[in-house]
Amino acid sequence: MANKKGLTPASSRSPATGSPAPSGATRPTTTGAGTTSGSPAPSGATTASIVHPETPLEEDRGDLSLRPRYLQEFLGQAAMKENLSVFISAAKQRKESLDHLFLIGPPGLGKTTLAQVVANELGVDFKVTSAPALDKPKDLAGILTTVTEGTVFFIDEIHRLKPTIEEMLYIAMEDYELDWIIGQGPSARTIRIPIPPFTLVGATTKAGMVSSPLISRFGITCRFSFYEQADMEAIVHRSAGILKVSIDDDAAALIASSSRGTPRVANRLLRRMRDFAQVLEQGHISRRVVQEGLKRLEIDSLGLERYDREILKIIIERYNGGPVGAETLAISVGEAVDTLEDYYEPYLIQAGLLQRTPRGRMVTPFAYEHLNLERNSNGNNGLLF
Ligand SMILES: Nc1ncnc2c1ncn2[C@@H]1O[C@H](COP(=O)(O)OP(=O)(O)OP(=O)(O)O)[C@@H](O)[C@H]1O
Ligand SMILES: [Mg+2]
């Protein structure tokens, strides 16, 4: 079956044509060090957004130096890290590939970083792509035909895989084989091409949208949670060290607590504070600089930006605190439902400002308190908080 002409990945089989072959090893869309874009930018998000980890900022590309390369540098998420470190050591001792790994968590918490860390710890190749880049089965085939023994193959936004690609991936994950079709029409037949054992690392911000057959093929699942204050402080100090900027402990603590438990946000805020410090205080980041900087950026003590406060205010002022359905709310704030659910709500919920209930979204008494608003006495129970 050396003749690659007429080879078609089986899952791309089209009854009418049997589409033409990928020409040998199709070049993978993205491999090696370069990552494809992360999550899509929320349609209505301000491009100047600092605390929204999903908004790609140009300077994040210079973030590579801040990205931890080994588990030891990867701060926080202690329980997850400990287990992972055991699984990695065991796989290395057995000289086997690590089981497929599923990473779940909101943007900016370190999923891509961890995938790269795993490859470094295992000492194997790292290949990167994201589900939207895998348009045709040949795109996936192109990457799978280049994996070497133990390669860590990272697919970002795995909830966006097309069904044909997903089917092909099942076989690759389970049997380490590529399903191909030779020929066309009635005489077409399927062959399987072996590929070396590899580790698929799939990352998603929306675990609920990943099909159960795919989930069941991952041997290890890591769920990221927002980082604790102490871990965030450690991350700020580490990044300040790498950026060679001096920072007081109480200033680092304030950046940490204003960063929504999200390392990407902490790194961005740190860079902004470095700018303010350069102009205001000869480059040293003191608590005063951070307080002033946060004020100028309109970021409050919980790390909310003006837009987050707008969402809460709309629920309070237009819907009397809720409940209001996600779709109605999304229209009111001028966002897509997905964006609202994926990017804005998780932290508002985590911070105890918003609740998802079966009847819709509701703000909590803490939201009124935080925004310094009183509950309307026409409300459901007419109580003032
Ligand atoms: N545990 C950590 N310790 C130190 N820094 C971290 C950690 N996790 C993430 N970071 C920093 O945060 C940045 C964002 O992390 P990363 O890009 O891995 O997030 P992500 O979960 O993949 O986000 P997205 O869902 O948007 O793709 C990294 O560049 C890195 O500098
Ligand atoms: Mg990522």
Automatic annotation (TrEMBL):
Pfam families: AAA_lid_4, RuvB_N, WHD_RuvB. GO terms for molecular function: ATP binding; ATP hydrolysis activity; four-way junction DNA binding; four-way junction helicase activity. It comes from the Bacteria. Its main location: cytoplasm. Keywords: ATP-binding, Cytoplasm, DNA damage, DNA recombination, DNA repair, DNA-binding, Helicase, Hydrolase, Nucleotide-binding. Residues 97-231 form the AAA+ ATPase domain. It is found in: Cytoplasm. Gene3D superfamilies: 1.10.8.60, P-loop containing nucleotide triphosphate hydrolases, Winged helix-like DNA-binding domain superfamily/Winged helix DNA-binding domain. Mg(2+) binds at residue 112. Residues 19-49 have a biased composition (Low complexity). GO terms for cellular component: cytoplasm; Holliday junction resolvase complex. It catalyses: ATP + H2O = ADP + phosphate + H(+). Residues 301-385 are annotated as: Head domain (RuvB-H). One of its GO terms (biological process) is DNA recombination. Residues 1-64 are annotated as: Disordered. Residues 228-298 are annotated as: Small ATPAse domain (RuvB-S). ATP binds at residues 66-67, 108, 111-113, 174-176, 217, 227, 264. DNA binds at residues 356, 361. Its EC number is 3.6.4.-. Homohexamer. Forms an RuvA(8)-RuvB(12)-Holliday junction (HJ) complex. HJ DNA is sandwiched between 2 RuvA tetramers; dsDNA enters through RuvA and exits via RuvB. An RuvB hexamer assembles on each DNA strand where it exits the tetramer. Each RuvB hexamer is contacted by two RuvA subunits (via domain III) on 2 adjacent RuvB subunits; this complex drives branch migration. In the full resolvosome a probable DNA-RuvA(4)-RuvB(12)-RuvC(2) complex forms which resolves the HJ. Has 3 domains, the large (RuvB-L) and small ATPase (RuvB-S) domains and the C-terminal head (RuvB-H) domain. The head domain binds DNA, while the ATPase domains jointly bind ATP, ADP or are empty depending on the state of the subunit in the translocation cycle. During a single DNA translocation step the structure of each domain remains the same, but their relative positions change. Belongs to the RuvB family. The RuvA-RuvB-RuvC complex processes Holliday junction (HJ) DNA during genetic recombination and DNA repair, while the RuvA-RuvB complex plays an important role in the rescue of blocked DNA replication forks via replication fork reversal (RFR). RuvA specifically binds to HJ cruciform DNA, conferring on it an open structure. The RuvB hexamer acts as an ATP-dependent pump, pulling dsDNA into and through the RuvAB complex. RuvB forms 2 homohexamers on either side of HJ DNA bound by 1 or 2 RuvA tetramers; 4 subunits per hexamer contact DNA at a time. NCBIfam families: PRK00080.1 (NF000868), ruvB (TIGR00635). This is Holliday junction branch migration complex subunit RuvB. The gene is ruvB.
